[in-house]
Each structure stands twice: as structure tokens, then as C-alpha cells.
Amino acid sequence: MERANQIDLEELLRRNGEHLLPSGREKRLGNDHSVTVRGNQWFDHAAEQGGYALSFVRRHYGLSFSEGMRLLLGEDGNLTQVVRDVLQ
Fold first, then answer.
1. pTM for this predicted structure
2. How does DSSP assign 21-82, residue by residue?
3. Which of 15, 23, 54, 76 is the most exposed place for a label (fewest CB within 10 A)?
4. CA–CA separation, 15 vs 77, rounded Å?
């Protein structure tokens, strides 16, 4: 779990086609401007909640614990494949 939480969210999101907008030293999600990411941390300013990479992928993509771990620690970190597997 510690290793999963160290994953750089900005890199993961960009690799999976998410649009990030500059916001000072942080980046805002293009599809939800209240959520900012910086390195492996995120914060939702509207909900006043935040955390690290694992809680982000679980909350933002609706993944289970094991699905989130698979995404973050998998060989390719391919969000599309993880979500496709969840929907089957």
C-alpha cells in the first residue's frame, strides 16, 4: 500500500489521457476543477477531502481497493484496461 501511494498522480493521469490545468505548483483536473493534484497527493477543494494516490483512484474512478492497487502497481498502469475489466 505504501508503494501504491507513492505513485505520481500527475504522471499517471497524463499517461491515461486526463487533461491537467496549471494552478500554481499544483495541477487541476480538466473535468473537475475543484480537484488538484501535486505529485502523489490530491485534494478536492469542494468536498474538503484529499489523500494519496490509492484513495484518489478509488474515489475518482470508483475502483475497489484491489483494482486501485492493480492500477497503481501494475506493469503498465493502464486505467482503460482496469476500468474495462471492472465493467465486465
1. 0.80
2. EEETTEEEETTEEEEEEETTEEEETTTTEEEEHHHHHHHHH---HHHHHHHHHSSS--HHHH
3. 76
4. 8
